[in-house]
Amino acid sequence: MSIKVAAIIGSNRKESYNRKLVEYMKKRYADKLVIELVSINEVEMFNADIENDPPQGAIEFKKNVRNADAVLFAVPEYNFSIPGALKNAIDWLSRSGNDLVGKPTFIIGSSMGVLGSVRAQMHLREILSNPNLQPQLLPGNEVYVGAIHTKLNEQNEVTDQATIDFLDKVVNNFIEFYNKVK
Ligand code: FNR
């Protein structure tokens, strides 16, 4: 049985490399995972005054995450951390329903620089350790795709064999982890 994965795209721009990377993974692993891209673009700004009566964008976003078997975060780096839009979306997940708690989850990320969003991913791991979020996070398997703009062709397929091999390994490790913890 395929695992339904809500892939939270941590960038809100149209030409996001992180989105392209997830679109590539969606095709490459279609026999193993049903990856559904979840946008953060319509998630309203979190405000504790309205958390018990959330607006439509937040409701949809939370539902998409809650209804999935697993979660994938695709993370860009903004100023050595995750983008504010992603943090805002995560804040919604931490309230009324704790949609992420216990959900098998893994993280990937890319940037045009060499470090592949490592600092953002370190912050994300710290954020997710809050008890109101606390997914079952795949240990290790840290995916830092640097110089992403040089690793995609015009069809947005990954052309770098080392990256493909590593993604294959991480996806297999995640499926093994999922079957163990679920
Ligand atoms: C960036 N970028 C960036 N890159 C990086 O390696 N470290 C950083 O601290 C930052 N900071 C940063 C701040 C802001 C406001 C922007 C707009 C960009 C570059 C960024 O990671 C790059 O544009 C990625 O391609 C963004 O991800 P998406 O949108 O392509 O998925």
TrEMBL record:
Lineage: superkingdom: Bacteria
Domain NADPH-dependent FMN reductase-like: 3-147
Matches recorded under SUPFAM superfamilies: Flavoproteins
Gene3D superfamilies assigned to the protein according to its UniProt record, in alphabetical order: 3.40.50.360
Pfam families xrefs: FMN_red
Family statement: Belongs to the azoreductase type 2 family.
Protein name: NAD(P)H-dependent oxidoreductase
